């Protein structure tokens, strides 16, 4: 006769175990968030000029370090069932906003240093003419950027990156040329990091073929013009191939430990691997043996 108290004990034990896992994940999440905030506060670069102040920024190395933490936070949030994908970008924006110096403020600071009449003259003869002659190019740039941001919000990262790249390449105005191009490049990198996070999440969830299709959908122009993006794509592709190779070895072990056939999890894994590599000899062999 089954002891009813035994069932209650099992349920209680399972619940306790699950609670412990959730507590551990929550602690890891809090630790990562604190680490993220510490990097934001300590690693921001605040340039110093004799004549005027410049907005703070993060180096490429720091942005990459932040991205790795963002990816870990996203994975844990997913495990905890939290929809908190804007936390990192919000914190980063708060720090950058704190050290942001509007261009109008730059001019005001310079004016106090070298004299307002000179600034007025420079503005009238140079900057103003440059702005007027670049008006069409600026309007076109802003339109492209708005389109790209809309595509990004819809998680159409591939087209968003292409549009950011187009905005950068096609801006030919003399007014703030390098600044506008830098803005487009910066947005494209942020967009790529979001794209990269999506691919990483698909791999974690064992949707290998979807991850492969996502990476193959990236326009070749983006890869050719951005060596760092090309390097990251290659890194993900190589890691994905290694994971698939490991999974094939696990299938063989699964067959040996289950009397010559795959168990339920093994069959599920085989189905995903066949989507990724439908022509693989060993996967086809295992599939035929399972019939």
Report on this structure.
- It is a single chain.
- With 291 residues, the protein is mainly alpha-helical.
- The chain has a domain at 1-101.
- The chain has 13 helices and no strands.
- It has helices spanning 4-43, 60-80, 87-98, 103-114, 116-133, 135-153, 157-170, 177-204, 208-216, 220-225, 227-257, 264-276, 281-290.
- Helix 2 runs parallel beside helix 8 and helix 6 (135-153) runs antiparallel to helix 7.
- It is globular.
- The two termini are 40 Å apart.
- The model is unreliable at 103-108 and 125-129 (pLDDT under 50).
Report the sheet with the most strands, covering strand number, pairing sense and barrel closure: none
Mean pLDDT: 77
Determine the fraction of residues in helical runs and give it as a percent range.
Answer: over 70%
Low-confidence stretches: 103-108, 125-129
The number of helical runs is 13
